[in-house]
Amino acid sequence: MTIRNIAIIAHVDHGKTTLVDALLKQGGAFAAHEQVGELLMDSNAQERERGITIYAKNASILLKAEQFPSLLQEDCKVNIVDTPGHADFGSEVERILRTVDSVLLLVDAQEGPMPQTKFVLKKSLEIGIKPIVIINKIDKPAARPLQVVDMVFDLFVALGASHEQLDFPVVFTVAREGIAKRKFEEHAEDLTALFTLIIEKVAPAAQKVDAPFRMQPSNLGYDNYVGRLAIGRVFEGVAVVGSKVWIKREGGSTRTGKITKVYTYEGMERREAAEARAGDIVILAGVPDIDVGETITTDEGAPVLPALRIDPPTISMFFLVNNSPFAGKEGKLVTTRHIKSRLQKERETNVGLHVEEIPNSDAYKVSGRGELHLSVLIEQMRREGFELQVSRPEVILREGQGRKEEPIEQVIIDVPETYAGTVIDMLSRRKGELVEMREGQVAAVDAHGATSRHVRMEFTAPTRGLLGLRGDFIIETRGEGILTHAFLRYEPYKGDLPGRTCGSIISMVAGDATAYDLWKLEERGKLFIGPQTPIYEGMIIGESAKDQDLVVNVTKGKKLSNMRASGSDEAITLTPVKPMTLEQALEYIGDDELVEVTPKSIRLRKKLLSEHERKRAKK
Ligand SMILES: Nc1nc2c(ncn2[C@@H]2O[C@H](COP(=O)(O)OP(=O)(O)OP(=O)(O)O)[C@@H](O)[C@H]2O)c(=O)[nH]1
Ligand SMILES: [Mg+2]
Questions:
Q1: Nearest ligand to the C-alpha of residue 21?
Q2: In angstroms, what is the span from residue 43 Cα to ligand 2's centroid?
Q3: Is 69 found in the same domain as 165?
């Protein structure tokens, strides 16, 4: 049996997971009678809810020689890694590229190449991969597949692709219907054209079995029974269950261990195997402290495999024990000890995450690759029953060449033309610089074939300025714009940014909010809570229309007097309030504020709860 290892890479939402599902279906990963749904590979609850892939996942398909008689002499196992497209998980993609022989670079036939397309393609080209290009979603009314092929070609050129790489094969797909064809005009029924291309263009993995076993974990997993798992490609050799191994790292000490379990991928399942063989992507258990990038070998003298780069974190936040007046009411896991052991467990598998204990405090500094990277963890913890408080996300600066440097991102914005001015204003206030502006994708095609267009703008902007941008962007562009950004490079610090322009509305007492008091407040800002919400002193209940904090009592209710004016008094109609999501809350809070997270609620609060304390702190 030969093995071919591929990863599927793209910008967020271009259809990777949908295509992997379709490949698995046609590849016979499911029994004929099995009822299968959509986006099977997005198996995690948050992935399903958010509609994005958060964790890279492996699967495999067995292509039988008899299905491809002219192409295959023996059966071929295709290991496929579905990667996340969101920029926060980009460094994971980079590591995965080292475990595969080729990539399927997928591009949306309407949107064309986007920031993450560029990022993942650049990384692939750098390590010499020859990608197969897939133009997906050609069924969209505004799709422009051939134009997108040209754009992809230009991107290859711009990234310095070699002649061989530039000669990339293209296949057009409708992943959602499981259709692939080499020529756009052709008719196709299934994905055979893509399978054929994979067999033809992806070199079979070298299966050098007569060398000492060497494997390098590119990812980690965890299993309740067997502990930490090392996931990666076996470069050479064979290791059987029970083998003694040496774990080596560049410039580090060598330790020993024993392989207790080996698994390989079969369809979407993990199957126990007797041995791990060269060329395959496997999961090993038995080394409890194994880390990404180390070399696991059966020969003490074998050289270490080249180090893997793990990108340093760009954003950090403090995780604190919940000490609000409502602490412990809604969660089961609330102590420092709980939080500490949970964060330690997270470190086992969450490769880019850093956790630092702050001495003599109930706080941890948790750093990651972006807001989403951290908010997924917080959301996971609250679902498990944790209560905690988190501070405003902060960008991590670094010292470079004797000066302060900060992360800069590439920002791509697609909006209807009418909003272009507003968007440019918004970005320049946040120290963004317009790099390019051109006619963007077709936004809509009406019944007569007339089109309306978007403009596409490219900016560079400091990550600092992008924190909290999304909420404003959606409001300012009435939800019609698309905003994506991805890390570009470090640059000298751009200077202070204007802070939040609005103050908070803060409760001065504990109690239950009354409809009447909230109604009176409506003209003074935007409320975050509805009537009967229990509140405490120092809790933030809204955003003030002015730039100053506003301290109020909303628990009084209307004093009943003898003079009832009219029956309409009781019929107060409040503007409905949508509870803030965790992400919105994190975007909103200022430096002197916290988000209180429990399994049931997201509350906002001042760090200092009493007005008196806050005044004193200001002096
Ligand atoms: N019209 C159309 N929609 C598609 C096609 N393929 C995928 N989609 C839709 O595009 C959306 C995103 O698909 P996913 O497969 O989750 O995209 P992804 O690239 O895995 O996204 P991330 O993992 O978040 O980066 C889903 O709503 C799919 O149903 C297609 O060929 N045509
Ligand atoms: Mg996906």
A1: 1
A2: 10
A3: yes
